[in-house]
Amino acid sequence: MANFIVTIDGPSGSGKSTICKMLAKNDGFIHIDTGKIYRSIAYLLGETFSQDKLNKLKLDFKLQDSQILLVANGKILNDLLSSEYIAKKASLIAQKEFVRSFVNDFARKIAYNGKFVIDGRDAGSLIFTNAQLKFFLTAKTEERAKRRSIELSINYKESLDSIIQRDKQDSERKVSPLVVPKGAIKIDSSNLAIEEVYSLIKSYL
Ligand code: C5P
Q1: Into how many domains does the chain fold?
Q2: Where are the beta strands (DSSP E) in 12-103?
Q3: Confidence label for 49 from pLDDT (cuts 50, 70 and 90)
Q4: Candidates 8, 92, 117, 121: which one to mutate for ligand 1, based on the most atoms within 8 Å of Cβ?
Q5: Which of 9, 43, 111, 116 has an alpha carbon within 20 to 30 A of 1's alpha carbon?
Q6: What ipTM is given for this predicted complex?
């Protein structure tokens, strides 16, 4: 089978993961969440993070219900990665070139054959520059903070502070900062229901 790759990049809380899950459930895509790969590294290596430890890291994956699950020592990590604490750590380690290159290689290894939707910050601008379709999904900061506070059951202020901090780190870092990929279709989801974003994306497929 030839590869068919759709990338969805954008800041935290823009709805990327939800849309990818819908495409995986309804439209035959396999979903790779590159943010989860960064989160796994942050979770597994914690404070003792170093290039040497990353080189020795045994991170694996398996496919289940069209989702890529991340596995270490036989344990599925996906459900352990959603806290803002891990998100902030992921955003910090994501500034290192050697971490980014580990994640990029890992994602490319998974998406070598099939129909994939991949979300992240640089899926279309760097990891999969040859993707058939690229989207950039965004929304106003306050709206994204509201969504995350509901999703994670945390207070709005905590969510807003975390989003502002991560947006800054993600867009100002030297190595592959968050940008709108060349040729990407830009969608602002601030005033759209998730079903409307899904329909809009489907209209391009
Ligand atoms: O998307 P998610 O919020 O799970 O990503 C966690 C962190 O990982 C982001 O804040 C970002 O710093 C980093 N990330 C990245 N590049 C990607 C995906 C995520 O730098 N492609």
Answers
A1: 1
A2: 30-33, 60-64, 67-72, 75-76
A3: confident
A4: 121
A5: 9
A6: 0.98
